[in-house]
Amino acid sequence: MNCVTIYARLILLASFFSCLAGIQPATSQTKEPNLAKLQSEFAVRFLEPEPHMALAKYYLDHGKRLEAFYTLEAARRGHFEEAIFNTAFYRAFDGLDNSRAAEARLLSQHKLSPQSIETIDGLADIYISRDDWPTAEKYLRLAIQLKPQNFKFTNGLAGALGGEGKRADADRVIKDYIKNFPETVDSYGIRVEEVIVTNPAQAKVILSEGLRRFPNDGRLQFDLGILFQKENNLPKAEEAFLKAAELAPTSVHIQAWVGRFLSKVRADHPRALKYYLNAYFLDPHAYETEFVESRIQKLNSHVAVTEFEKRTAAGTSLVSMLDDPNPVVVELALSKMAEKWRPDYVDQAVRIMGHDNETVRWQATEVLKKNADKSFDERLTALLKDDDLRKRGLAAYIAVFRWQEASFGVIRGMLSDSAQLLRFDALSALMIEGGEAGRQIVLAHATRESNPTLKRLIQSANAPPKVKQASPDK
């Protein structure tokens, strides 16, 4: 899809805001009370990561996995620096709190109970998350002293040593583990993977023994799938891969590579999406020759375009497709509606302004801005007071575009609102649609703006921004 318009909106306020990569999914327009509360908090604290995480977590917990993905990607690619996003994500989705307060609490507990493996593990996780490899190494070595057979700590230590540039030491740690604990499931897995490329026959012997001991281990099942794939026994490979994914639901590597197999080898894009999403929610930076986030967006776009074309050929109405659970379908429907606009489309576009998806909301706003006539003004006045703060903010763009200086009174009121999203949208609307007079209002507001992020963003009004054209396939 083309993200030019939303890119323009964001880049005018901050050079580090980027075009949302991909298209986001639709959800029911009937708001559950809890969801409505989360969406309100999202608008009030738009420039803080926690409300974005809470919304994404809600969608994930309610089975709306694509919605969760795109909500997170909007936050990661559009609104927050990586370090801020990572901290908020892992706290919300993995339960990892690497704050200074959490660190101090665990250090205090460790002092009282120095043999507590849970405390040591928690401290190691904190320092790993900060890439503080020497300190992580210290606690991982303590953990290994207490639980030498638990490969998690040995593997973590190897990673920490690698992070310090001690590659030989990292390799030695792994070899020592295999030597000391040759019959653990992890030792079998390591031994298989050392020879699976160069000597598949030997790998099969080791794997056969390992599976006799550990038939329900996901890692070994995954290696079995690799061997079957090498033999071009694709049905057996698929069976082993799917079993591996079921047995190892928290393995980023397995979930991502099962997704790759289904996509690249079996050309089963809908099923591949499932496993790529599994990997993403474990680690948004998951990678398997390409970042998982990119795989998801490409596959989902392909699935949606195919579905849109199928439904169009079957005579399905564009209006009905606005409620499709796939956002690409919704965007395609909106685009087609805009090409042959009808007055009765106004109600539908206004409804979609309250969509859960940021890109869809913005496209609906653009469609109305370009197609609504003077008869829309009364409706627009009501939208500027809408209970849905997201709709209210988007209405600002249409108002400044249509009314110019006659809109400035209500837009100034938004600049005084406590909701960060309303101030964001008011500033953006003035800068995009308000001309020089709008820019002067933005600059004058700088001294009154309480949010440091918005204060910095307002500085972009001092120089004409360069609007970068997004690639059509994004």
Keywords:
mainly alpha, 27 helices, 474 residues, disordered N terminus
Write the layout of secondary structure elements.
Blueprint: H1 4-11, H2 33-44, H3 49-61, H4 65-79, H5 82-94, H6 100-112, H7 117-129, H8 133-146, H9 151-163, H10 167-180, H11 185-195, H12 200-213, H13 218-230, H14 234-247, H15 252-265, H16 269-282, H17 292-313, H18 318-321, H19 327-339, H20 345-352, H21 358-371, H22 377-383, H23 389-403, H24 408-415, H25 420-433, H26 435-445, H27 452-458
Helix pairs in contact: 2-3, 3-4, 3-5, 4-5, 6-7, 7-8, 8-9, 9-10, 11-12, 12-13, 13-14, 14-15, 15-16, 16-17, 17-19, 19-21, 20-21, 21-23, 22-23, 23-25, 24-25, 25-26
Spatial separation of the terminal alpha carbons: 5 Å
Uncertain runs are: 1-30, 465-474
Average pLDDT for all residues: 90
Query: What is the number of helices?
Result: 27
The structural class is: mainly alpha
- List SSEs in N-to-C order: HHHHHHHHHHHHHHHHHHHHHHHHHHH
Q: Which strand-content bin applies to the residues?
A: under 5%
Bulk shape: flat
Helix content: 55-70%
Largest pleated sheet: none
Count the E strands. Answer: 0
Spatial extent as radius of gyration: 26 Å
Description:
- With 474 residues, this protein is mainly alpha-helical.
- 70% of the residues lie in helices and 0% in strands.
- Helix 3 packs parallel to helix 5 (82-94), helix 7 (117-129) packs antiparallel against helix 8 (133-146) and helix 8 (133-146) runs antiparallel to helix 9.
